[in-house]
Amino acid sequence: MTAMEKIRNGLVVSCQALEEEPLHGPMLMAGMARAAKLGGAVGIRTNGVQEVEVCRSITGLPVIGIQKVVAEGSLCITPTFEHAQALVRAGAEIVAVDVRQTRTFGDPLAELLPRIRTELGVQVMADCATAEDAAKAAAIGVDMVSSTFGFTQDRFGICPDFALLEKMLQGSVPVVAEGGFWTPEQVEKAFFLGVWSVVVGSAVTRPLEITKRFCQALPRQS
């Protein structure tokens, strides 16, 4: 059974923390991943070679590996083949790649995506912001597309863009719902629409962001 098949109809938990956050670091993320597995998660998404290695080791679950890189004033996920190669060596069975048409650096997608699939022998998830991103990635060749960068916003923060998911589901490859999922009801709705799996991150593994959302619901002080 492939990693992609193992995560079908299940919850993937994104175990990540920014460098300035209290829970940053591979061992803390490993603990988060272990807790996610005990709670029923079928896969882990994490950022960085060390994080991939420890999360894979401690859970035995399929790991979606990413490498966030900031350059030229913008963020790109797994921008080069070398980044993908390091993630696979660490144990990633799926590699997520930023396929936004607005990405400002990195290997050309037409070269990068097929190289990861053929030379590294793993499945590729295309991290998208729009339905157009997903369609172009599918045309190049990927195993699944994700709504990673596609979300809306309410007064508490980001939330899922279900209209985007519906558009992406009209394409030719499986769709993973990701981006702004904070409630079980939102997860239910995504599966009702027909997604392959759902990735939940901040709502599970980032207490700083969770606390912020609750504090935003407090009465305004004059």
In short:
The chain is an alpha/beta fold and about 220 residues long. It has helices spanning about 5, 25-40, 50-60, 80-90, 110-120, 130-140, 160-170, 185-195, 200-205, 205-215, and strands at about 10-15, 45, 65, 70, 75, 95-100, 125, 145, 150-155, 155-160, 175-180, 195-200. Strand 11 (about 175-180), helix 8 and strand 12 form a beta-alpha-beta unit.
Could you characterize what this model shows?
By secondary structure, the protein is an alpha/beta fold. The protein has one domain: TIM Barrel. Helix content is 41%, strand content 23%. It is built from 10 helices and 12 strands. The strands form 3 sheets. An 8-stranded parallel β-barrel has the order 1-2-3-6-7-8-11-12, surrounded by 6 helices. The chain has a two-stranded antiparallel sheet with strand order 4-5. The protein has a two-stranded antiparallel sheet with strand order 9-10. Helix 3 (49-59) links the parallel strand 2 (43-47) and strand 3. Helix 2 packs parallel to helix 3 (49-59). The longest helix is centred in the N-terminal third of the chain and has 14 residues, at 26-39. The model has no long low-confidence stretch (mean pLDDT 94).
Oligomer: single chain
Shape: globular
The sequence of SSEs as H and E is HEHEHEEEHEHEHEEEHEHEHH
Q: Quickly name the level 1 CATH class.
A: Alpha Beta
What is the total domain count?
Answer: 1
Lateral arrangement of strands in the main beta sheet: 1-2-3-6-7-8-11-12
Q: State the share of residues found in helices, binned by percent.
A: 40-55%
Radius of gyration: 17 Å
Discrete helix count: 10
CATH architectural group: Alpha-Beta Barrel
Mean pLDDT: 94
CATH superfamily: Aldolase class I
Structural class: alpha/beta
Distance between the termini: 58 Å
Low-confidence stretches: none
Q: What is the makeup of the main sheet? A: 8 strands, parallel, barrel
> Which percent range describes the beta-strand content?
15-25%
The CATH topology comes to: TIM Barrel
